[in-house]
């Protein structure tokens, strides 16, 4: 189980599942695999009309968004975002990392009917980005991981807001109101977690889990994307029991939920057309993910670091150098999970464009992974040289003493 909590293992499973899905979809077995995603597993009595693919993206992926929400709450209350001074620079960098890719996408698709896909390149896959950093940048100064984590958490918050605002269609106010009531009841029930022992403690957990499922159902029926229910539940539960739940769920989300989603989302047939026949969506995402994130995070983060520079010399060592900021910006270009979800939501009515968008997300993220790996590796080598030189200087100074 501890292996499935590893950032390296999580990133490896995600990448492996995506590659496997893409490969299998383009083998002779592909025509038999692809219809499985579209096969419906409906529950008419409850008004649930979902295909296998939607059960994965709306149902299973809710567990991932619950984890994201709890991590966000932890960072805001006790972590690296628990004060304005800590949060302001990564927050500005995150906003830049959303605006620049969205702007590049809009520029490439200007004058076409594909403008609704602008949110796709704005997301950062926190699990994948941290995994790449762990693989290629072990032993790097902790400030790099702290900044990346803060940036990615804030990026996830923006992505959640985008999904809630721009991918909600025809809301049913009755179900939406009931969902709000359910969230409030979940908040109240959550106060009793950890206060009992034995059977009563188990009962309290069961009640909260049932309320979470009811909330998911009501949000789904309201027309709001169902994963928002998991976000709401994660934010209203007390932090201590919520963190315990996340610890228990991590092997499931890392080992099952995210790989299954990556496999299902990446299982698309590569279009047998020339490069010139690909839609503007493909080129917009491929460019916007690596280039947009690089420009947005580097420029916004660099300006913010200058404006909000810490006057305390002891704290300035926590400020990222421009080289470190560029590496973090490239890690931010790994869209993957949330970008794939936004792609499905933005072009739900056109499977052909969804497929092209999926390939673009995979290619754009792959470009970001390769460049980020090179940059992070370079940072690690430079840091090793600095440490070695400092050690040699210290040894020489000690030897020169009388």
UniProtKB/TrEMBL annotation:
Matching InterPro entries: Na/H_antiporter_dom_sf (IPR023171), NhaA (IPR004670)
Bilayer topology: Multi-pass membrane protein
Pfam families noted in UniProt: Na_H_antiport_1
Keyword Ion transport (UniProt): yes
Catalytic activity: Na(+)(in) + 2 H(+)(out) = Na(+)(out) + 2 H(+)(in)
Cellular compartment(s): Cell inner membrane; Cell membrane
Regions crossing the membrane: 52-72, 84-108, 120-140, 147-167, 173-193, 200-218, 224-240, 252-275, 281-304, 325-347, 359-379
Keywords, sorted A to Z: Antiport, Cell membrane, Ion transport, Membrane, Sodium, Sodium transport, Transmembrane, Transmembrane helix, Transport
UniProt superkingdom: Bacteria
Family under the similarity heading: Belongs to the NhaA Na(+)/H(+) (TC 2.A.33) antiporter family.
Function: Na(+)/H(+) antiporter that extrudes sodium in exchange for external protons.
This protein's name: Na(+)/H(+) antiporter NhaA
Gene it is expressed from: nhaA
């Amino acid at each position: 189980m501890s292996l499935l909590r590893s950032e390296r293992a999580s990133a490896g499973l995600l990448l492996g599942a995506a590659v496997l899905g893409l490969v299998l979809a383009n083998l002779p077995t592909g025509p038999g695999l692809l219809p499985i995603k579209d096969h419906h597993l409906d529950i008419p009595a409850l008004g649930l009309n979902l295909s296998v693919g939607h059960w994965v993206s709306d149902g299973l992926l809710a567990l991932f968004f619950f984890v994201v929400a709890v991590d966000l709450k932890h960072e805001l209350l006790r972590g690296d975002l628990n004060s304005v001074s800590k949060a302001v620079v990564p927050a500005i960098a995150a906003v830049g990392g959303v605006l620049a890719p969205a702007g590049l996408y809009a520029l490439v698709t200007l004058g076409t009917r594909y403008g609704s896909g602008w949110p796709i390149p704005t997301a950062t896959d926190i699990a994948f980005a941290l995994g790449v950093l762990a693989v290629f940048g072990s032993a790097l100064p902790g400030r790099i991981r702290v900044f990346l984590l803060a940036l990615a958490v804030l990026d996830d918050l923006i992505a959640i807001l985008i999904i809630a605002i721009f991918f909600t269609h025809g809301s049913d106010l009755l179900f939406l109101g009931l969902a709000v009531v359910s969230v409030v009841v979940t908040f109240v029930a959550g106060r009793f977690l950890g206060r009992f022992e034995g059977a009563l403690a188990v009962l309290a957990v069961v009640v909260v889990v049932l309320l979470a499922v009811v909330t998911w159902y009501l949000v789904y029926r309201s027309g709001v994307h169902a994963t928002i229910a998991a976000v709401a539940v994660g934010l209203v539960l007390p932090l201590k029991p919520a963190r315990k739940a996340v610890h228990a769920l991590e092997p499931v989300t890392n080992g099952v939920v995210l790989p299954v989603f990556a496999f299902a989302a990446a299982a698309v047939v590569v279009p047998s057309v020339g490069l010139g026949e690909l839609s503007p969506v493909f080129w917009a995402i491929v460019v916007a993910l690596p280039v947009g994130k690089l420009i947005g995070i580097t420029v916004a983060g660099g300006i913010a670091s200058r404006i909000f520079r810490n006057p305390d010399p002891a704290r300035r060592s926590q400020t990222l150098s421009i080289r470190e900021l560029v590496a973090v910006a490239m890690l931010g270009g790994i869209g993957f999970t949330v970008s794939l979800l936004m792609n499905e939501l933005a072009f739900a009515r056109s499977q052909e464009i969804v497929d092209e968008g999926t390939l673009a997300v995979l290619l754009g993220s792959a470009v970001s992974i390769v460049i980020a790996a090179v940059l992070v590796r370079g940072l690690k080598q430079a840091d090793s040289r600095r440490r070695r030189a400092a050690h040699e200087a210290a040894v020489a100074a000690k030897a020169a003493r009388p």
